[in-house]
Design brief:
Low-confidence stretches of chain B: none
Mean pLDDT of chain B: 93
Largest sheet of chain A: none
Number of strands of chain B: 26
Structural class of chain A: mainly alpha
CATH superfamily of chain A: ACP-like
Largest sheet of chain B: 9 strands, mixed
Shape of chain A: globular
CATH topology of the largest domain in chain B: Rossmann fold
Strand content of chain A: under 5%
Distance between the termini of chain A: 20 Å
Mean pLDDT of chain A: 83
Strand content of chain B: 25-35%
Number of helices of chain B: 15
Structural class of chain B: alpha/beta
Radius of gyration of chain B: 23 Å
Strand order of the largest sheet of chain B: 2-1-10-9-11-12-13-14-15
Number of domains of chain B: 3
Number of helices of chain A: 3
Largest interface: A-B, 19 and 25 residues
Oligomer: heterodimer
Helix content of chain B: 25-40%
CATH class of chain A: Mainly Alpha
Number of strands of chain A: 0
CATH architecture of the largest domain in chain B: 3-Layer(aba) Sandwich
């Protein structure tokens, strides 16, 4: 999961080539990789790739701070995503 | 009445000495402090040889330090030029050289960026660092905080230059005088009903003309400029949380931020009762999202402001509940001390619904011109087409409008190849010029793809010289070295050759038609 997300962010969202290769604990916020629109782009990708729904209330800095925190968040989401169609 | 922008600060410091002038993470300044520290900064600039009319760069996000830099530069009689800290180094360096900037004021986090700028020239770039807590800046410690002797600017002098996308391939500097800016500042403070108790917030960076409102109209009212941290604006829920916590009363931004807030902000869970006015400008607000925002957040007044950087805001419209449910919101009628009119292609005046013409603006808010570009200035600052005998210049906006039954102007579109992305102006020609810098790109055209949230996205169509092998990633990486992120194309298409018109120009119409057909097929 880390590799898939890291690859997507590196390919689609990183603006500054100096930030590559991206490590899983790099801050996506302090580095400026995520802004309001790239965040939504990432959410659309996560929802399609992992078949989950990310609720508005989950769009928080602590969940999207790094590749690691995104994966940790997704792992908490997965069972719920399977249980209900709309999380 | 203040005649110069920094006169607003002198007045606020006299009337509201202990009120907060600016609040940002790590730095808060009262009006007395902002006044005194900017006196110190002005003295430091004079000591570095800055003379009236000189351009001084400011490389910092909006902050207490940036406010000190703005007022310090103005008090020294200089014209400040905001440099976008997020732009590629090549572009910042271009602005520094184009504007003949000899001194750059930066905050402490941008020391290495300034060193890089100095390495790229000019050879003698003066540097001045203001720390996050401006009172503790070592560079200012030896200077006197007393007011400077005498005034170094009059109202027709340049106060700042804002660089905006240029159709010929490089950004151009819009020259704004103190009078140009004050015309907007005086009107906007009254139109938004600003009071000294207000906490005013706009996420627009200093190089974007929306910032003129929260930097100067706030000061005119003796209110508090409240700086939202960049990382907070990333998350719609965080924005709502922050608005509640900081008790923001006036918000000013491009519509896309508000769309995100309406759709993903969880607005009903926060107490935003202090927010009494929401202002948006810079692009068209898709009516369905505006309607949603006004339903989710029914308390505030909603104001739609319109105006290019060259005129600042020149029309305004107050949106009443229910209006956005019925379709697009007008750009409204002229601001105080400003006149707008629209001229049809036959040279007549737009007076009735159904008429269509180009919006023109007259009044003291019009820019002085484009820096060192007299030809481009003459294309937009033109004799009044309706009254050629009148000895005055009016501004041609390039925006096509009509008028509705109540006399409000309604925006229809552009007459040229400029598009808006997240409220930023993008000249397609400038993106094409960046593509042509790549040695393997033989031909390039850039087409806008309409996008509900962003305004537009960009589709680059290129053909290659010599051996193929260039990938989409290569092209995008190349663009990122020359262009700010909002100007980088999303889609890259490779062609053996681009279609040409009979005069040998790239046939944009053919490309656009093809693109529309493709879109129609996939939907």
């Amino acid at each position: 999961m880390e590799a898939i997300i890291n690859d997507y962010i590196s390919r689609e969202l990183v603006q500054d080539p100096a930030l590559l290769p991206l490590s899983d604990d790099t801050s996506l916020l302090d580095s400026g990789i995520l802004d309001s629109l790239s965040l939504l782009q990432l959410v659309v990708f996560l929802e399609e790739r992992f078949q989950i729904t990310v609720g508005d209330a989950d769009l928080l800095p602590q969940n999207f701070a790094s590749v690691q925190t995104i994966c940790a968040y997704l792992r908490t989401r997965e069972p719920a995503a399977r249980a209900t169609a709309h999380g | 009445m203040a005649h110069v922008l920094h006169g607003l600060l002198a007045r606020a410091a006299a009337r509201h000495p202990q009120r907060p002038a600016v609040w940002s993470q790590g730095g808060e300044l009262t009006y007395t402090e902002l006044d005194q520290i900017s006196n110190k900064l002005a003295r430091a600039l004079l000591r570095m040889g800055v003379a009236p009319g000189d351009r001084v760069g400011i490389l910092a996000p909006k902050s207490a330090a940036a406010a000190v830099a703005v007022y310090g530069a103005l008090k020294a009689g200089a014209c400040y030029v905001p440099l976008d800290p997020k732009a590629p180094a090549t572009r910042i360096s271009y602005v520094v050289q184009d504007a003949d900037i000899n001194v750059v004021i930066a905050d402490e986090d941008r020391t290495s960026q300034v060193t890089d700028l100095a390495d790229r020239g000019p050879s003698q770039l003066g540097r001045l660092t203001v720390t996050t807590c401006p009172a503790e800046s070592p560079a200012l410690s030896a200077e006197s905080a007393q007011p400077l002797d005498g005034e170094r600017a009059i109202e027709t002098d340049l106060a700042y230059m804002l660089y905006t996308s240029g159709s010929t391939g490089t950004p151009k500097g819009v020259m704004i005088s103190h009078r140009n800016s004050l015309t907007f500042v005086d009107w906007s403070a009254a139109a938004a009903g600003l009071r000294c108790e207000d906490r005013i917030c706009s996420p627009a960076p200093l190089h974007f003309d929306l910032s003129v409102f929260d930097v100067f109209a706030t000061c005119r009212a003796g209110a508090c400029l409240t700086v939202i941290p960049d990382r907070t604006t990333t998350f719609p829920v965080s924005i709502a949380q922050w608005l509640e916590k900081e008790q923001v009363s006036i918000w000013y931004s491009v519509p896309s931020v508000l769309t995100l807030l309406a759709c993903f902000g969880g607005l009903s869970t926060f107490d935003l009762s202090r927010l009494r006015t929401v202002i948006f400008a810079g692009e068209v607000f898709p009516p369905k999202y505006l309607a949603r925002l006004m339903t989710e957040l029914p308390g505030p007044r909603y104001l739609n402001w319109y105006g290019p950087t060259e005129t600042n805001v020149c029309t305004a419209f107050e949106v009443v509940p229910g209006h956005a449910d019925r379709g697009p919101v007008p750009i409204g009628t002229a601001c105080a001390n400003t006149e707008v009119f629209a001229v049809t292609s036959e040279g007549g005046l737009v007076t009735h619904p159904g008429d269509e013409g180009e919006l023109h603006v007259r009044g003291p808010s019009l820019m002085r011109g484009y820096w060192k570009r007299p030809d481009q200035t003459r294309e937009v600052l033109v004799p009044n087409p309706l009254m050629p005998d009148r000895d005055e210049l009016v501004y041609r906006t390039g925006d096509l409008v009509t008028v509705d039954a109540t006399g409000n102007y309604v925006y229809l579109g552009r007459r040229d190849a400029m598009v808006k992305i997240r409220g930023y102006r993008v000249e397609l020609g400038e993106v094409e010029a960046a593509l042509y810098r790549h040695p393997s790109i033989a031909e390039a055209a850039v087409l806008p793809i309409p996008d509900e949230l962003l305004g537009s996205r960009l589709n680059a169509v290129v053909s290659l010289a010599g051996t193929p092998g260039l990938t989409r990633e290569d092209v995008i990486d190349h663009c990122r070295r020359w262009l700010p992120s909002y100007m980088v194309p999303d889609v890259v298409e490779f062609r053996a050759a681009l279609p040409r018109t009979s005069t040998g120009k790239v046939d944009r119409v053919a490309l656009a038609t093809e693109r529309m057909r493709k879109l129609a097929d996939t939907h």
